[in-house]
Amino acid sequence: MQNVLSVIQASTLYFQKNGVESPRLNIEHLLAHVLGKKRMELYLEFDRPLGDAELEPLRALVRRRAGGEPLQHLLGTAEFHGRIFTCDKRALIPRPETEQFCEIVLARGPAARVLDVGTGSGVIALTLAAAWPEARVEAVDVSADALALARENAARLGLTERVLFAQSDLLESVTGEFDLIVANLPYIATAEIAQLAREVRHDPLPALDGGPRGLEIFERFIPQAARHLRGRLALEIGHDQTAALTELLGAHNFQDILPQTDYQGRNRFLFANYG
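The structure corresponding to this sequence follows.
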């Protein structure tokens, strides 16, 4: 009979052959999920025998992961800034760059009225709301499915009363002025999507596709933001878009335009002031 350690070892090799990054970490997460354990608890149970009732659902998950389905979709959750969010195909999987984006925004200090544009699963809006209890936070997305997921996450975290979610194509349905607008918008050029990692291609296409040049959504968004912002703008962008977006922001009278690098040293974030 197989035990915890032998399953981890065999599945790690299987994942390696199928091009899964961090293969051992992946199988540990999946096995812990099937057993209802924390991942680190597996290290105390290496000799635990596993029967068909445990192995059958695990095998199904392992096959799907080897086929390119994201780990977060299989687990149904993703950790972001110390909190657990529901995660599925309705919105982008939150990634380390976006977590760093939130850390930088938080480090720059609180704002009284905040708008998150393209909120997806709600990770940015809910992280800021949790950190800034006095802030009024609003979040919009064009996708009704993404908004449903964001509301589920708000309920999961006890923040339903703290964040107002609404459907809007960028800022078309937004009213009023904000001290801070944050946005992680689609920025990948259409022709580049086919070359993305297979896990990324499981994200919703509208959340990835930034148009033929990857800039078209920003070209609509930035003039709209200028009409609603009296304070700070924070953007997560493509690593090669700094110059084009800096020029676009300047053309719409944004000031103090400042790029910032991600953990890999790539220009991934852009900050500016308006009004």
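The first strand starts at residue 77 and ends at 80.
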